[in-house]
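hiii, so i know i said id send this last week but things got crazy w the move. better late than never?? heres the sequnce for the chain we talked about at the cafe, plus the structure i predicted for it. fair warning i was half asleep when i ran it
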Amino acid sequence: MKSMTVTPPSDNRIAQLIDANLDRAREGLRVMEDWCRFGLKRSDFSIQIKDWRQQLGVHHHNIYRKARLTSNDPAMGVSHPLQQVRTTPESVFIANSSRVQEALRVIEEFTRTTDPRLCEIATKIRYKAYEIELKVLNTSEGIEKKKTLKDCSVYLITTNRRNLEEVVLQALKAGVKIVQYREKFLHDNEKISQAKCLASLCKEYNSLFVVNDRIDIALAVDADGIHLGQEDIPTKIARELLGSEKIIGRSTHCIEDIKNAEDEGCDYIGIGPIFPSQTKKQLNPIGIDYLSKGLSKTLLPAFAIGGINSSNINKLNHINNLRIAVSDAIINSNDPFLKTEELLKLLT
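okay and structure toks below
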């Protein structure tokens, strides 16, 4: 690219504020870079931010450094009370991203005629900083979802029922941390309305809300993810549509299914059916021994599914860190709250 001439500002105060804001922007970028590197383990983000920091460093010319104001700076050491309430890495990242954006805006305004190349770089980085802030927030959100998923022991799958919202509410109150909305009979408008209600309940109880099969409904209600069967849309396409922060689960019925789900980047799997299931009557049970074998073949959170209830769950007691997915056992119980509590206690 053709070089652009740098003209020293006629007013030394302008050189001082350019120097100060270059320092401010580069410092803020370093905070952002390190959180992406060490906190999120996202080398792509940290490399990009490091490049921006280096670009600004190259254009931090001596004419700005020599004008530096330190001991005579009337605002040196001044802090703000809000700095004391940044209690999460995300809040620190956002604060520094805002700091970078503000500093770059100042640089843009005061270098348009004297240092057009620096002005151009500051503009490009400022707009890119908006984009990476959103990506980082989505990544953090995805990490939190996966932490919640890992800690789930009972996975509730809904079926059509008149008072479904109340049943799910009672299960959430009892401690369920993931709910899958599975509905085969209602019209789409009814499904969306019901899914929105359930998604809101799950959010209130800091639980995950997943939609079975229907990515369009998952997107419409901003669900936490999607659950797919073996005949459903490929995982790669689902990921492209949903984004990296959403959860994708897949039903598996054999070792090959489990391996494929892991290779495709699914976040969790269901293994089954373990026992005869009222929901999946067409599938033959794979049995407990096959479940144990399947669990040994994957590092993904895996939920045993199919006909599991409080009367046969003791047959799975020998399996460490057992996770189960249930539908009828809770949805059609006389007391969903007590039944959920019972299953959770059996698993702990």
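btw The chain has two domains: 12-71+79-145, 152-347. thought thatd interest u
miss u guys!!
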